[in-house]
């Protein structure tokens, strides 16, 4: 497994990370045994970056990871998002970036994860009611106390990145980035590169939409995030799946799967970009890891760009209410 450093000040991590959200019901029911087996397979394959959030399954995801890491905590780097507020019915009800909330969230995450430190700690969103300097300042206090090693950001724009970096070095920005979600390109990526901040790219398969495996016949199960995603709705889904079929032709000509081509495209955008794979089964993980062996030439990249040009997706990546919380989209 190749390794990369997260920015100028961050840790060394594997070239691909594992996003664990789907193991806690965000895409419908998940299989606990298979989730643990997938975590094991990822670690044995050399993945050292595990990404989670304290609001994934309301602590379920952190407890699951703790179980999977027994006896080998030192082999991975834990990236934890905090701050998203949810009601008992699972509804998203805001974000809390107050310093006291930051430290309380960290205390609970440390307990659930069964660890004495978090490797990368990041606010999941920008709290519109709390200056980013205060939120990052609280994270810096946790670094000084030894509970956190590095600080990251998630889904924020260029101005916020600069303000945060003025308080404490930032290891990486976590943001959605794929062939059909390219808002990172432009001022945000330019700012990250100017300041020596890496990018951990989630949603590299756009929640499975551009995996080549999803179809309208499959639909979405109860509790599946995609049921409310505009890109999976009537009026958008047919156009988006047509893009996937075009991409499938490119992948077949290259002798790889759609999954591998899409992930390899993200990885080819720079060594400072680490794709975070949201696999929740060993089968999907194995396929995704095949992208490590896919080296794209300039001609390949041009062909992919022609097949799925920037802005080609139909529908926003989140529903309107969630889009309004994204500083990265302002």
Automatic annotation (TrEMBL):
KW Cell membrane (keyword) present: no
PROSITE patterns listed in its UniProt record: PROKAR_LIPOPROTEIN
Keywords of this entry: Oxidoreductase
Residues in NADP-dependent oxidoreductase domain copies: 17-307
Protein name: Aldo-keto reductase YhdN
Lineage start: Bacteria, Pseudomonadati, Pseudomonadota, Alphaproteobacteria, Hyphomicrobiales
Gene (name only): yhdN
